Amino acid sequence: MERAQERAAEINGADAATGGPGRPAVAGAESAGTALELLVHGVGGTTPQEMLDDPRTVRITGDDTAAVFRRAEDVDAEDRPDDYRGKPVPEAYVWCNLTSGNSARALWLLLLPFMVVNLAHWMRPTARGRERTVRLYGLLVRLAGLTLTVLLVAAACEVALDLTAWQCAGTRACAERHSWLGFLSPVASEGGWWSHPGRRLALAALVPTALTGLLWYLSRRTWSAYESQQPMSREPEPDEVSGRTSLGRPGFWYGRRLVARLRAAHTAAGLLTVTAAVGSAAARFDRRPGGPALLDTLGWLLHAAVIAGATVVVWVVCRRGRSENRLDQELDERLVRRLPLASLVLLALALVYAGWDRPGWQSADRLPGDPTFGAIAFLQGLIVIVLAVVAHLLHRTDPDPRAAMRGLGGPAVAMLACALGGVMSGGVSQRVADWLDGTGTSIAGPPVLLTWQASVIPPLLVLLLLLCGWLAWRAWRLRRTELGTVELDYAAEPRDTARTRRIASTRAMATLTDRAPLVVAATSTATLLLGAGALVGALTSDQTPSQAAEGAYAFVHGGAQTAQALGSWLIGVGFILFVTWGRRAYKDASARRTIGILWDVGTFWPRAAHPFAPPCYAERAVPDLTWRMATWTRAEEGRRLVISGHSQGSVLAAAATWQLTPADRKRVALLTYGSPLERLYGRWFPAHFGPAALTSLHAEVDCWRNLYRITDPIGGPVRLPGDCGPEVDHDPLKDPLAYGRTPEHPLPAPILGHGEYQADPEFAKERQKLLERLRPEVPGQRPESAP
């Protein structure tokens, strides 16, 4: 271990040995031309022992969260260059703990809507020369994220203030069933101090306030661990202005300032939502004819202060705070500290105002929640529609035929984020209302709009089932076609019908990934239309669907009753399953690993639209890889490096390569396998991984080779245009390696799909070719047709 620590100190001090980044290396004991293969794993993570195929591994740099490992016998490889002639020194970068390390991260499931809306920010189409339109796109997504925060806190207010403190505690039958509410009930407590409606609301307001504080705490803690990891400093490149990709800009993976600003704004928005919920109920009572003039004036002042605070919050969210062209190390400390503090002070004043003694004030019916939830739903739908128009305009300026949904992927995903927020909010309200009111007659229940929204879930599920059936039929037809293709691919083998069917089925199922845009488009469109219908029905009737359908045809009335009952049941069961899954993941490491796979894909991007989203692990992983690659290539003239990325690791490898200087990139070879760079990221994030961006990456590194299989549902070809396409993409690897039993494979060879690319003989051949191109003397020569 002491030897490993000494070696780690040498590696971390590489810049000092070279006189600093970009300076000539001093003479040392290490020999020029040593090659390094830096392995980066994919989704779900793995162990360094599996990556290096050796049970004895040593951490040479990093910590318990993310680190670089070597085999024990390779720790001092630089001191023994003769032992590594013709073969690379393997290293493994393990980053799985960034997304699935401890059990508390399973609670990130509750932040799913925030994560989805943050993805929509990065899905904008490619556009050049439309900076204002691009800024408008980002502004609209940030506003959608703000509405999700307000919706979540409003749902907490609905549960704590309306259903519990206002309705149940104010109703004798409901309060008697729940003895823990006795001190809040005017009857059970015989007019106790806390039984006053305003004081009940003030006490219940602690629940949504605590929720807002928890979100602030989680965001700040992860902000300190992720967004505060500084990337390697360097000067911007002239090519970065061309718009090929922004992932290579110095400040792209350092969003410390923007996340802090957004965190302050969203925290203030949550506190102002609680303030409005508490103060509006008291102000409505004070505005009655003959009410106290002083309290009425205070109510209007409180209302004006809430509007002023909301205006400041919207201004902060709208103002562009992301500076990718430079490493922005500034922090608006006054804004970050004072805005949430001012909102908290305003909330405290509202609690005092609501708790003032008001003789004759009694709780009845519901708090005014329908207008609030209706306004949020209307605003979200309007934002999504305008966002779709902006995305269409951007796509028209530089059309990309491979872009998902013709550039409308971002608006569609933003719509799904809003739908997820509505389902989770409505699910909590429905379940709490059913729990408090077992008979269904003692309290009025949640706002009518939430019942309408729950009622549209059954028809949406029917649509999804029909769509899944159609996809299954397409996959079955493709499987029939693949049966003949498999027989041609293994023409010399004896026929095995069952084996052929398994291979053909695997190939057909792997193509379903390419149908994801159709599923998202259909789901988001149906959600928008059904949500609009629910909003109109709730506002025009002010009744639940079953009540509004009374007097209509029996079929219509029965359908409304069925949809309402089934929707309430489904939304409740879905929420219970959601919480159960999170609780299981809290205790079960394997389930936690499954959730980690979801975050591996969803939290790659920085938190640009919502500060309460799960943190971006790439803001730690990409600087780690960049530092390791730069210190290796700069340590000595002639150093060679192959960065080998599998699945999501290939995306991290590409992002880290873009962060290098042009001179460093020319000394790097890129080997990707099972890579979603074009198949997923290129289609869904065309502005950052589109054809222009991937073509520039191929031109800037020394060489690049991509391996994939037809049976892989995630990885695929890079599809670069022109002659550089075949140069990068290898022909599809054979899977399985053997159709039947052979001397080399006496047991049936498995269908590998997305895993175990290194087990294929072609992997070692392609890696060796890349190392041979990276000569110590001069960079590898490119074909003249390469860009």
From TrEMBL:
Residue numbers spanned by region Disordered: 1-30
KW Membrane (keyword) present: yes
Keyword hit for tRNA-binding: no
Keywords annotated in UniProt: Membrane, Transmembrane, Transmembrane helix
Record-annotated membrane-spanning stretches: 136-156, 201-218, 264-285, 297-318, 339-356, 376-395, 407-429, 449-473, 516-539, 559-582
Name under which the protein is recorded: Lipase family protein
Organism: Streptomyces cyaneochromogenes
